[in-house]
Amino acid sequence: MKKPPADPAQPAAKLISQRIAELGDWRGKTLGRMRTLIAAADPDVIEEWKWMGTPVWSHDGIICTGETYQAVVKLTFMKGAALKDPAGLFNASLDGNARRAIDIRAGMVIDGPAFTALIQAAVALNTAGKAKPAKATKPTKPTKPTKPTKPTKPTKPTKKATR
User: Quick one: CA torsion of 61, 41, 73, 67, rounded to 10 degrees?
Assistant: First the structure.
């Protein structure tokens, strides 16, 4: 099954919904459930459609992608290696320095609260690097040049004590 082509006129949310409907099997249901959990975990999430038909969820940077394959629905967290995963949801891409993934196979059920916590941690990590812009400061006045110091008088040599 081909992914729908990216159409700049269609919003990403519509393309993602279309993709979920086209899958029509456990993968569509799974991707739909994970999408719902992501939106509940972060109401400010932005849905995008990138890389020739991959759903992407972002908030001050990519949170995760939602790829679908024949045997798995893969949720790849771009900064997953930096996230704590106490529930052990990450089960793929464990060797990398940046990404971690959750491969969901037919019949698997992902712990909703643990997944929600992982999404919220990813958002917190993304937003932590976004410092607030500094307030504009008044320009400083140029400093006055310092006056040259007067040369000091050479000191007279002292007599050395003789034995």
Answer: -20
Instruction: Answer yes or no: is 134 within a domain.
Output: no
| Whether residue 77 has pLDDT greater than 70 | yes
DSSP-derived letter for residue 23 is H
Burial class (CB in 10 A: 0-12, 13-18, 19+), 1: exposed
User: 90: domain CATH number?
Assistant: 3.90.1150.200
Question: pLDDT tier at 52 (50, 70, 90 boundaries)?
Answer: confident
Residue 22 falls within a domain, yes or no? yes
Q: For residue 103, what is the DSSP state?
A: E
- Do 60 and 91 meet the contact criterion of CB atoms below 8 Å apart? no
Q: Residue holding tokens 């099997």?
A: 25
Residue ranges making up the domain that contains 27: 12-128
Q: Specify the number of domains making up the chain.
A: 1
Structure tokens at 17: 């919904």
Give the separation between CA 58 and CA 64, rounded to whole angstroms. 7
